[in-house]
Amino acid sequence: MRPDLDPRALLRRMFDAAIAAAQPARCIPPHLPAPPTGRLVVIGAGKASAAMARAVEDHWPGPLEGLVITRYGYALPCERIEIVEAAHPVPDAAGLAATQRMLDRVRGLGPDDLVLCLISGGGSALLNAPLEGLTLEDKQAVNRALLKSGATISEMNCIRRHLSAVKGGRLAAACHPARVVTLLLSDVPGDAPTDIASGPTVADATTCDDALAIVRRCGIALPPAVREVLESGRGESIKPGDRRLEGHETRIVAAPQLALEAAAQVAHDAGLAAHILGDSLEGEACDVGKVLAGIALQVARRGQPFAKPCVLLSGGETTVTVRGNGRGGRNVEFLLSLALGLNGTPGIHALAGDTDGVDGQEEIAGAIVTPDTLARAWNLGLRPADRLADNDAHTFFEALGDAVATGPTLTNVNDFRAILVH
Predict the structure, then answer these.
(1) Is the whole model's pTM more than 0.90, yes or no?
(2) Residue 314 to residue 360: CA distance in whole angstroms
(3) CA dist., res. 308 & res. 185, Å (int)
(4) Which of 62, 202, 236, 374 has the most CB atoms around its CB within 10 Å?
């Protein structure tokens, strides 16, 4: 590492490169299907769906129409595809109305027509149509409970698939007999299409019993109508082998690994070795912080398993079991735990952030940890361990001036973590 390099600036350049690598304008065009003999209808949902729609419009050679749903503040103007904004992470009436209109658009299509479905992270909340017998209020209550439960994203989406009229393959079934091609920006560990926005266009092998087992294990309180849907089996999703999904295609156009490799290239250009520890790390954010602090300390003190200077990169999606009343998110919770584990060790800096620009429910992507993070906090009267216990890491890092804000990034390939040991 060159002595003239600023660790903060280098970490931010790596984060920016990770976000840039997953921009829809770059990732969508190579994956566009051949034009159909009939109509092309574009649908979709997610934090990146408006940017994905713009990329389709810019590169599609013929006529098209459609509707996609994105998060408030994430819209881009399109000429032929309608962009609707709705709430995330808790669904709202705007998302419900837009999803119902989307279903109306795809009903009545023929076998010569093609539905191009653009899906990215955030679609689980934005694509919102409760099963018959459930209300928007039921779905909102479930989502709030899930966000506080500590359940993994795969577990959350298993439950969501069995309470929805569009998830778990039901959106694709509604398009039958038109063919469906789904383009996915993955924001989930392992890149499983069933977990990206709860799999609206792919078959689902999980069951209502699986969802109930997660509910019991995580202690999630359910409204009575929701429990009835699961216990009765009325919430069963579209299963593998369903003829309505025959001939459909699913293509992942960007994923966390792509973003980590882009960040690694920035490190290499700065004369640093970059080691990708994994693109799908999961677990409680504070526990992952402790583990990665231990690895960074071993590098700093022993030169194991890697020699310094180097950068330790990782992606995936941690979870937070909310027990406090603070302002938090999984990335800043990870960072505060990491800082406590490092305990001011010289020569270690870190950045973690969500590539969609929103960590938790805050318009803040993440934050930066420096060797003097704890000392500066104590000088301000902040007690780091108490802030962690109260799930109040956003307040902590904002007070230090170390929050990282990107604004809407128009993409979403999950969390980004970089630890610089120099």
Answers:
(1) yes
(2) 19
(3) 33
(4) 202
On whether the CB atoms of residues 166 and 211 are closer than 8 A, the answer is no
Report the C-alpha gap between 197 and 183 in whole angstroms: 12
Length of the chain, in residues: 422
CB pairs under 8 A, 24+ apart, for 376-385?
Answer: 376/400, 384/336, 384/339, 384/340, 385/340
The answer for residues whose C-beta is within 8 angstroms of residue 63's C-beta and 6 or more apart is 39, 40, 80
H-helix segments, 46-178: 49-59, 93-106, 123-126, 136-149, 153-161, 170-175
**Nearest Cα residue to 317 out of 119, 125, 150, 126:** 150
What is the dihedral sign for C-alpha 371, 376, 379, 381?
Answer: negative
- Cβ-based neighbour number of residue 202 at 10 Å: 26
Q: Cα torsion for 171, 33, 41, 28, to the nearest 10°?
A: 80
pLDDT tens figures, 167-214: 999 999 999 999 999 999 999 999 999 999 999 999 999 999 999 999
Would you call 115 helix, strand, or coil by DSSP?
A: strand
AA letter at 281: L
pLDDT tens column, 89-136: 999 999 999 999 999 999 999 999 999 999 999 999 999 999 999 999
